[in-house]
């Protein structure tokens, strides 16, 4: 990844009566624009996210989605859907006077990248995607109900702990009740357990420092509440919508690179493979010694190679 740089522009963009987004711009002022779509939903951006792009070539645009990071109000679920976020990306593009841009997203960011590109294909130069996630019921069931649980039994026990045994037949709904409880202690306890499960499972080699992110009340609350809100509502789209042929046909012409960890249990490789089957024109690389995180060396290396290859387009 490229060395750390500081933004030359920070801003707040009001996108509704309720929501205001934080955004920042770094790199080359007249460079080729790229927008970074963070994961979660609810995860927010990190300064190190700028490092996927050559700052001498790219005008690097990062922003926190509704309710996430420095955007306000924090953890808000009101007027917070996939299609609200798609509209926000367009408002940000127009505000920054960008004609077309590269779109970069991993995990939930890949979901949002596909949804945005399918809605505005004429505004997307290329797609660089990682850890494909399309919010199908089967994907959610594998991670939150049964599947990944078989690989991380000790972490699964901690994820189960806040939920009474009779309610565990639908963990997402059970968590939904606790994450929206009137009792703050209940909400924060559930939020930390939800976030910790994802932090535990995100890397091929379990990283205690990564797991520790879940101990931050503000991060866990936004991350867990917004993720759960999207997931119990099935992403506010048809099951499998992003993989439907008529949707893929809208973006088939866009040069697209997909980087996928072989042992990604958060967003298993089967979804990236499903995307490749319906869209054979994409370049799919499966990293043999990686899990989900964009910071794993094999994944980070290929992501930077992809952005370098598109830098002059």
Task: Describe this structure as you would to a colleague.
37% of the residues lie in helices and 16% in strands. The chain has 313 residues and is an alpha/beta fold. The protein folds into 2 domains: 7-134 and 237-310, Rossmann fold (3-Layer(aba) Sandwich); 138-235, no CATH class. Strands 1-2-4-3-5-6-7-8 form an 8-stranded mixed beta sheet, with helices on both faces. The longest helix is centred in the middle third of the chain and has 18 residues, at 184-201. Keywords: Aminopeptidase, Cytoplasm, Hydrolase, Protease. Its main location: cytoplasm.
How would the blueprint of this fold be written?
Elements: E1 9-14, E2 20-27, E3 32-37, E4 58-63, H1 82-95, E5 101-106, H2 108-119, E6 124-130, H3 137-144, H4 153-160, H5 171-179, H6 184-201, H7 208-211, H8 217-232, H9 245-248, E7 256-261, H10 269-278, E8 283-287, H11 297-310
Parallel strand pairs: 3-4, 3-5, 5-6, 6-7, 7-8
Antiparallel strand pairs: 1-2, 2-4
Subcellular location: Cytoplasm
Protein name: Proline iminopeptidase
Active site: 107 (nucleophile), 264, 292 (proton donor)
